[in-house]
Design goal:
single chain; alpha/beta; three-stranded parallel β-sheet; 3 strands
Amino acid sequence: MEFILNTIFWTLALYGLFEIIKDIIYLGTYTNFKSNGIYLIIAVKNQENKIEVFLRSVLFKILYGKEEYFKNIIIADLKSEDKTKEIAKKLSQEYECLKVINWKECKDIIDNVNEK
């Protein structure tokens, strides 16, 4: 019985070590996003009156609801001429799963998905 428990313990310990090493390697990537998973990409332009309510609603449903699969939300700003990007950046400081980028950066991420 002790042999089985030790085997399970060391297997889990090695798996954890492998995951830590993998995360360290991926930490220095261009996007700081994991290459696998489900991403929610929201493209916005000139929505300063609606963006905060919309994002808080989405975040509430994802973080506190039953949407367990979304852990990465990308806000792609389409050259807004109002304060949409600033409002989204403020929210991204509160929620680490929220990233605000411009459309070109979003396109680069999508184009490079298969390279990682």
